[in-house]
Design a protein that fits this description.
By secondary structure, this protein is an alpha/beta fold. The protein has 25 helices and eight strands. Strand 5 and strand 6 (542-549) form a beta hairpin. It is elongated. The two termini are 42 Å apart.
Length: 633
């Protein structure tokens, strides 16, 4: 299977041309977000100073540089990429690793933390396209202030086009992403290098003494400054989340060979410009370029921000699919836009909701500087979650002194993340409330859905007869038998499903062969071929089959049954002779409710708006019989 090449070390054996392609692909998909941060970060850090002195510029640059080295280079690229779930990364993949083997309160706390971190990602997915496109289009204001009124309308138009082409998939556009970002990072390096050549004293900021001196002079100001400096770290989560697409070596090569040098040159180039012309603080990025290069730079920046936005939108699709598979979200329509790449998916409902949210953000905040406050909270919240989960994963297997080293290193990184998150808490009133609100709503919905499904499983298992004994007794004294095979889908293997009881009660027949099918999602991204299903015979004409999928795979019942039929020819699963029986549940209030009224209403609303089982499991609708039943919660 193709996923076997996604292991962390797999790409190392690739040919040089293949490795180069992986590095170029990582440039386009993984580094789009962090690569467009220079558009707005340094301005957000320095705009609050009434008189911009050289020591302010050098101090802020030094803090920014060392945070890039500690948080991105050391924490993410060097350490966190080691915590892979069969080659896959991301908050939910890390969560599955963290809870493995844990029970009780510790497991529950980690699940809550991981789901809240994943929920904050949706706030990030809303803000990234808005702030990136706005900051790029704002470059036309540098060309001429008479164009300022066009910034918001043009941004809205670019975003509408971006979201409208999502259904075509990233395959065709993906081939352009790497080269475009290659040109972008090359441009950042050239612009920054040219400015540094004119004011080489800016390189003094590489010395951490400048950062320590700035912190000593402005202790409270330095803490609050972290709320803006964190904008330079946005997109660091993508390094980990997209590990499965490109492999650990390609992501590391791209960072150290091109992305990090280009970013450092660009930030220090802006600092060099400000040392010579402090008034350039109104837009230090675009003012680095010569006058003749302004318009091409605006065009290139706009294209680069579209690439950055594309990456985070695709990330929202992937996180949602993982949440669906892991039981934290109702079933949603998932469309594959590539016959070759499993990761290229499109979720129409997620795309529509994101588009509406992003357009509202642009119209509400109007400029990138106002959005910067909202941005940091979502990013630092997700980063803090990752560090805490990594705390419970990376030291495993280590003993003695090595374990002490791990805990000391992770403790330092945790302290940095707490400081970054704490600084952004003070910006909640400036816009940080937005991702907090979005994250809280998504978190509440995820946990409500998970709890509701758990209660349904418990209720359906209660007072139900064991399946094997029931079928043996039924075959001993059978009702009328009819030709063909009946497939009953059930969440609870080993107990009689409600759809079978309803069928016997109303139709009073039993098919010649009966198959009870349970779909389970494992805590790994992909299942090996020989682990996909397990068949057990429970009576002369009745079987129980459990089909397993990884949390990055899409269930396909007809395909699974085809494999079962190939392995066990005695099971008649001919498509024209097979009927599927499903239970359609309607939630009604119980005398003694198991959930609060508002949560029960929310669960029922999510259940009504989820994708139909037939569509989600790819079952032909003309072969399905649905049995309606009411469930008391």
């Amino acid at each position: 299977m193709t996923h076997q090449s996604h292991g962390a070390g797999a790409p190392a054996g690739h040919a040089p041309s293949s490795r180069a392609a992986l590095v170029m692909g990582a440039l386009g998909v993984v580094y789009g977000d962090i690569g467009t941060s220079p558009l707005y970060t340094l301005r957000a850090c320095l705009v609050g100073f009434a008189d911009l002195e050289p020591e302010h510029i050098l101090g802020v640059l030094s803090i920014l540089f060392w945070l890039l080295m500690l948080v991105v280079s050391f924490k993410y690229v060097t350490l966190v990429l080691r915590a892979d779930n069969r080659g896959e990364g991301g908050t939910l993949a890390l969560l599955e690793l963290a809870v493995r083997g844990r029970q009780g309160r510790a497991r529950w706390l980690l699940v809550v933390l991981g789901i809240f971190g994943a929920s904050l990602f949706y706030g990030d997915s809303m803000i990234t396209p808005a702030i990136s496109v706005l900051s790029a289009i704002e470059g036309i204001g540098v060309v001429s202030h008479t164009l300022d009124p066009w910034i918001v309308p043009l941004s809205l138009a670019v975003l509408i086009v971006l979201f409208s082409i999502q259904s075509r998939g990233t395959g065709a556009m993906g081939k352009l992403f790497g080269p475009v970002m290659g040109v972008w990072f090359g441009t950042l390096a050239l612009l920054g290098g040219w400015q540094i050549w004119q004011a080489p004293q800016v390189l003094e900021a590489l010395n951490p003494i400048w950062a320590l001196r700035f912190i000593d002079d402005f202790p409270l100001g330095s803490f609050l400054l972290l709320g803006a400096v964190v904008l330079a770290l946005t997109g660091a989560e993508a390094l980990y989340a997209d590990m499965g697409h490109f492999g650990r070596p390609a992501i590391r090569r791209a960072w150290f060979m091109m992305v990090l040098p280009a970013l450092v040159l660009c930030y220090f180039g802006q600092g060099a410009l400000l040392l010579r012309e402090p008034q350039a603080i109104r837009n230090p990025f675009f003012l680095m370029a010569p006058e003749w290069g302004l318009v091409p730079l605006v065009v290139l920046a706009t294209i680069a921000t579209v690439v950055a936005s594309q990456a985070v939108i695709s990330g929202a699709y992937s996180v949602t699919r993982q949440a669906v598979q892991l039981g934290f979200w109702p079933r949603m329509q998932i469309l594959h836009t590539s016959a070759a790449e499993k990761g290229q998916i499109y979720l129409p409902q997620v795309n529509a909701l994101l588009l509406v949210a992003v357009l509202i953000l642009v119209m509400l905040f109007q400029d990138s500087e106002s959005l910067a406050a909202a941005y940091g909270f979502a990013v630092t919240g997700t980063m803090l979650t990752t560090t805490i989960l990594a705390f419970s994963v990376l030291p495993r297997g280590s003993t003695g002194g090595m374990r002490v080293v791990w805990l000391a290193v992770l403790g330092l990184l945790l302290l940095i993340d707490i400081l970054l998150f704490g600084a952004n808490i003070f910006k909640i009133h400036e816009g940080g409330w937005l991702p907090l609100l979005v994250g809280s709503v998504v978190f509440t919905m995820m946990m409500t859905w998970r709890r509701g499904r758990q209660l349904l499983v418990q209720m359906q298992s209660r007072d139900r007869q064991p399946l094997k004994e029931f079928m043996l007794q039924l075959e001993e004294y059978p009702p009328a038998r009819v030709p063909g095979t009946a497939v009953f889908m059930t969440m609870n293997p080993g107990v009689v499903p409600a759809a079978l009881l309803h069928n016997l009660k109303h139709n009073k027949v039993l098919h010649e062969q009966v198959l009870f099918l349970t779909i389970n999602v494992a805590d790994v991204p992909y299942m090996a071929e020989d682990e996909h299903f397990e068949l057990q015979r429970i009576s002369p004409s009745c079987w129980q089959v459990e089909v397993r999928y990884g949390f990055k795979e899409d269930p396909d019942v007809p395909d699974a049954l085809r494999r079962v039929a190939e392995a066990y020819p005695e099971v008649d699963l001919d498509a024209m002779r097979t009927s599927f029986y499903l239970s359609r549940q309607t939630v009604v209030p119980a005398r003694r409710p198991s959930m609060q009224r508002w949560r029960r209403g929310l669960f029922a609303f999510m259940a009504r708006n989820g994708t139909r089982s037939t569509k989600f499991f790819k079952i032909p609708p003309n072969r399905v019989v649905e049995m309606g039943m009411q469930v008391e919660l």
